[in-house]
TrEMBL record, chain A:
Major localization listed first in the record, in broad terms: membrane
Phylogenetic placement of the source organism: Bacteria, Pseudomonadati, Pseudomonadota, Alphaproteobacteria, Rhodobacterales
Organism: Salinihabitans flavidus
A cellular component annotation (GO) from this entry: plasma membrane
Transmembrane segment boundaries: 34-56, 107-132, 144-164, 176-197, 232-257, 284-308
SUPFAM superfamilies: MetI-like (SSF161098)
Protein name per the record: Peptide/nickel transport system permease protein
Family: Belongs to the binding-protein-dependent transport system permease family.
GO biological process: transmembrane transport
Entries under Pfam families matching the protein: BPD_transp_1, OppC_N
Automatic annotation (TrEMBL), chain B:
GO biological process: transmembrane transport
Positions of transmembrane segments: 12-30, 100-121, 133-154, 188-207, 243-270, 290-314
UniProt lineage: Bacteria, Pseudomonadati, Pseudomonadota, Alphaproteobacteria, Rhodobacterales
Principal cellular location given in the protein's record: membrane
Membrane topology type: Multi-pass membrane protein
Family designation: Belongs to the binding-protein-dependent transport system permease family.
Gene Ontology CC annotation, any one: plasma membrane
The protein, known as: Peptide/nickel transport system permease protein
Domain of life: Bacteria
Organism: Salinihabitans flavidus
Amino acid sequence: MAETRVETRAGARPSRLRRAWQSDFTWSFRHSPVAVAAFGVVMILILGAVFAPLIAPHNPFNPATLNLMNGFTPPGQANEFTGELFLLGTDDQGRDVFSTILYGMRISLFVGVSAVLLAMLLGVMLGLMAGYVGGWTESIIMRVADVQLTFPAILVAMLIFGIAKGITPPEYRNEMAIWVLILAIGLSDWVQFARVVRGATLVEKNKEYVQAAKLIGRSPFAIMLRHILPNVLNPVLVIATISLALAIIAEATLSFLGVGAPPTKPSLGTLIRIGQEFMFSGEWWILLFPATTLLALALSINLMGDWLRDALNPRLR
Amino acid sequence: MLAYIIRRVGQSVLVLLVVGLVAFAMFHFVGDPIDNMLGQERTQADIERLRVQLGLDKPFVVQYWRFLEQAAQGNFGLSYRQGRPVAEIMIERLPATLELAFVSGLMALVGGIALGIFTAINRRGVSANVVMTASLIGVSLPTFLIGILLIYVFSVELGWLPSFGRGEVTRIGGWTTGFLTESGLKALILPAVTLGLYQMTLIMRLVRTEMLEVLRMDYIRFARARGIREKSINFRHALKNTLVPVVTVMGLQVGSIIAFAIITETVFQWPGVGLLFINAIQFVDIPVMAAYLMMISVMFVGINLIVDMLYFAIDPRLRADRTTGGH
């Protein structure tokens, strides 16, 4: 990170690892139990999602390995017909809930991270342009941002999803659903980034180093990307973390409402939607475990975002 | 003042025109209306005739203008899925959403202000801290999980309240209401709580912060010194001055209540416009989507405009800022 002020002691120059360990940034991390715990939970969940094919005891999407007899096995009990044991039970089709959660998390995280990257890219670019170029460019960009901000992000995402669904031919809809989701959530979320980056750029562009860069004849493009961007990046990182939690929840909400990830490629939201149907008949585990995973993921990312905001102490708002 | 109002109204009209363009583009580019209206057996002549009849041979701008004219009259054509006029379906569904939004908004306002005052006055009390922590969890929980949780506790486990639908409704003129029957009122409780909880925590935290700020002011200290009773200070002197921002925020939240009603209505299968919209997305029912979009934009833009005007009228400090620079 940019802020690695080093507390060098007299004597031998400490190794790079040691300096990183002693930086203010890591110091504040090590001394915040909440941040460490949240980071631990996020890492476990991310590793579980990334290595899902290795960790998951079953492949829930390979019909050959599914046995309908295994359906509705309660967690931690052997199935009464086949005698097989499932850590978190099985759903109606005999799919291992633990495995479906691992694979579902993959999709949730993939959509969330991609959507935030898209929003960040778009927002940072437009924000830099609005702040640095000013004039008509700024008016148009910020007016569009204002209009979009009038509507809740989730509504914008739903609308984009609906339009995109209408444009894609029916036979591709299930395959395209994930990409459409990323597009919908990403486009609904860029405003935050643009506003903060524009604000920070307005401050930075009058500083001496930008004047100097102008004098030596660097192009506006280079000034924006090489000089201003690194200096406005801290608040962007904080917003990206908080946006990630929001994007994961938005994805889950859309999938839960049936306008997101399809049942053939279920995300955590789709799993919760499926699980809700069995809540009334007493198969609580099909609902409870995906819901808890979603909560743990969103909450710990949020807590990390909170800590990051304090640690980087950016000029938010 | 007048210049500001004119500019603000102009902006609102511009927003509506842009949203109208989006809605029109949906009709224009998503799916072919002729495909939707004519069956399999059609001739080129049929297609041409319908094109002229629908005005699809006219230039884009002319079509857009005609669309706006029709939209202003509430005419969005037939729903692709139900084959009935969209306006008719919307009017049928609107009372359910408005009743839900009204009750949850009221709950959020009353509950939020009461809890906000409580937590501000007993800042160091144990119960106030419990409420504050609970509100943090309430903010992080996604709406649909709150709904599921409530259904699980109150419908599945306790069996006290129904988990879906509106119960028995009474028809008064064109309006259907669930307020008059026991089952209607019972069915309203869980969705209203689900929808109102987030807004309630928002208002509660706002009232608390404002209240704490005001209670530090000199005139409150002076009132204490004069020996006025605590109750009178808290409610007569402090509360009044915290309400201005609360009213503005609440005004802006009306829009998001309507939007989040989509989620709540889906969880509880509440037969309102939100559920209609979600079903329209699932089945790519463009006229319903467009009509919902236009309706909600008119609401949002209208509310924003009113709130801005109110703010402007209430707080004279804003006038100088706003008329000189943009906002």
